[in-house]
Design brief:
signal, PduO/GlcC-like, alpha+beta, four-stranded antiparallel β-sheet, GlcG_carb_metab_protein, about 180 residues, PduO/GlcC-like_sf
């Protein structure tokens, strides 16, 4: 009987080992089946359109040229969708306030997807209005640049004696880059 004991232990040990492997494999397979499929990485990444530096420079230069043709000393800012400056051109003789004005008009236009002149009427009245949003400026002179149905940049002009003139110059910049898709 003692001779059978090591053999029995060996068989029991092998059986236990095989059972452990089978159990682990079965549990692993069951766990793999219970996992929900993960979305492809493409669904977790969002791509946005950005106005290229060449187009932004063309727009800014065209706006500055239009202003200079009419004897106006202005600054032109082109910002991206986040409001970061892509191009800033300060014309000869433009006042110190024109840089901030141009940047804020461009930011406002891209933020709301509308020319700043169209937004000005919503910035009036008592109590809180959109004029209370930091970094915005609701004076004429900012136009959005759109592609694929949404704003991707803003062109702002500051320094002419009226917002109408500033906006006309900004629109000249927009025309210089044409319709974007």
């Amino acid at each position: 009987m003692n001779a059978k004991l090591p053999r029995t232990r060996l068989i029991l040990g092998m059986t236990a080992g095989l059972a452990t492997v089978a159990l682990a494999t079965g549990v692993g397979a069951a766990q793999a089946q219970d996992r929900k499929p993960q979305p492809p990485a493409q669904q977790a990444v969002v791509q946005t359109s950005v106005l290229g530096v060449d187009a932004a420079t063309r727009a800014a230069q065209a706006a500055l040229d239009a202003a200079e043709k009419e004897g106006q000393r202005v600054t032109v800012a082109v910002v991206d969708r986040s409001g970061d400056v892509r191009v800033l051109l300060k014309g000869d003789g433009a006042g110190p306030q024109t840089e901030e004005s141009a940047k804020r008009k461009a930011f406002t236009a891209v933020s709301f997807g509308q020319p700043t002149s169209a937004l000005a009427k919503n910035a009036q009245g008592d109590g809180p209005t959109i004029r209370d949003i930091p970094g915005t400026l609701f004076l004429g002179g900012g136009v959005p640049v759109a592609a694929n149905g949404g704003p991707i940049a803003g062109i702002g002009v500051g320094g002419a004696p009226s917002g109408d003139l500033d906006e006309r110059f900004a629109t000249a910049g927009l025309r210089a880059i044409g319709e974007l898709r």
